[in-house]
Structures are given as structure tokens and as C-alpha cells.
């Protein structure tokens, strides 16, 4: 009975992996297709990768997307970590739970509601300041930090709960200031949660279309917006090449982070 159950679980797992990764496999294969056909392979070629690096508009959108994702994940990582520490230090359970609920609103809010509300806020603020054309890269950065913050907070809070609350006090008794105690004792312990939250923020920012569409200006196009504008005509195979490179880069980054975390855990166990 257990053998049959294990076999069924393995088959189910394989089917899930096929369902998830078969589209990516097809995309990678067709990025090397010699022709522009999306239904027939005519031969192996790297010409779509060459076309990609000749497309200045796409490369500019890619640059904007990467810079936006890096900045928003870094800032959200710092603000989210500080916010999580502040939430965890609230003594009143009712106030702490209320703060968590308010923090989670951007998670539950539909992207289109977030995008429209932030666009109206930026336009309203621009009119108060007597400025027109306020939408651009800065407004996109603020919007991305806003919807990435809850993910960082949710990643850091469990690590803070696992931490001995007396560690910081012990470090201060040994001569550390509160800031030194946080940097030398608390931060290394919660660093895996911080890195996980920043990774989630990076991928969410990289992938976002709806919010970016509403708060972007004409000179601050991101890659998802660029691809959306191409769908009105036809998505060229150089987008397959770009998607393949992005997928491989994210995969490599995840492998390196998991490797670093596993080494850190081994060192912690040895010590």
C-alpha cells in the first residue's frame, strides 16, 4: 500500500514539474531556432541572440528593469528589516497583530488597484508642487519599494521569532551599543531571512508590469512594458533569447545563494 502511494506521489511530482517547466524548456529551445517560426524548428542558430544585442530599445528597457529591481530590492531590504525589528519589538500583542495586518494589505491588494492609486497619488503630489510630468523612474522606484516591503518583512519576522530575545541584551552587557549589538549579533542570525526577502523583492520588481505601467513615464520603459507594446504587433524571437538569459541568470543566482546559505548553516553547526 505504501509502495503504491509513493509511486503515485512521484508521478504527481513529475507531472507538476513538467507542467511548470515545459513552457520554459520550449522557450529556450525556440530561442535557438534558425527561423522566426514559433511552431517549427528549422535548425540551430544564435542569430536571435545577435539580434537582441543590436536592439537598443530592448537593451535600454532591460537596463531600466535591472537598475530598478536592484535598487528597489536593496532599499526594501533595509527598510523591511528595520520595520520587522520594530514590529517584533512591540510589546502589545493587539497592536503588533494590527500592524502586521496593515503591513499585509499591499500583498492582498490587486495590482491594478495599487497601480491606479499610486498614479493618482503621484499626479496629485505633482500638482501640489506645481510640476507636470512627474511620472518616471523615481515614481516607479517608490512604487516598487512599496509593494516589495511586505515580502521582506514577512521573510524577516520568522527569523526574529526564532532568535533568543536575550542575545542583544547579552551583547550590550558585554559593552556593545544597541546598534553594535544589532549589527554583530542580531543581523547575522536573521541574514538568511533578509536575503530571501531581497530575492523575492528582486524577482517581483523584475516581473512587475501592472504597477509599472501606471506609474511609468514615456522615457522610463521597463522590459515587461516593452514586451507588452510588442504584443500589439508580434513578439519577435529575440525576446525568447532575452527570456532565456534572464531565466539562466536567476537560476544561477538562486544556486549561488542556496550554496552560500548551506555553507553558513554548516559553519553554524560546527561552531
Verbal overview:
By secondary structure, this protein is mostly helical. The protein is built from twelve helices and no strands. The chain has helices at 2-30, 47-54, 56-88, 93-103, 105-108, 111-128, 137-162, 167-173, 178-207, 210-215, 223-231, 238-270. Helix 3 packs parallel to helix 7 (137-162) and helix 3 runs antiparallel to helix 9 (178-207). The longest helix is centred in the first third of the chain and has 33 residues, at 56-88. The mean pLDDT is 83.
Radius of gyration: 23 Å
For the sheet with most strands, the description reads: none
- Counting helices, strands and paired strands, the structural category is mainly alpha
Mean pLDDT: 83
Q: Terminal Cα separation, in Å?
A: 43 Å
Figure out the total of helices: 12
Helical amount: over 70%
Strand content: under 5%
What form results from the Cα inertia axes? globular
Order of helices and strands: HHHHHHHHHHHH
Low-pLDDT runs: none
Number of strands: 0
Q: Features of this protein?
A:
271 residues; mainly alpha; 12 helices
Summarize the structure.
The protein is mostly helical. It contains twelve helices and no strands.
Q: Strands, helices and their partners?
A:
Elements (H helix, E strand, L loop, with lengths): L1 H29 L16 H8 L1 H33 L4 H11 L1 H4 L2 H18 L8 H26 L4 H7 L4 H30 L2 H6 L7 H9 L6 H33 L1
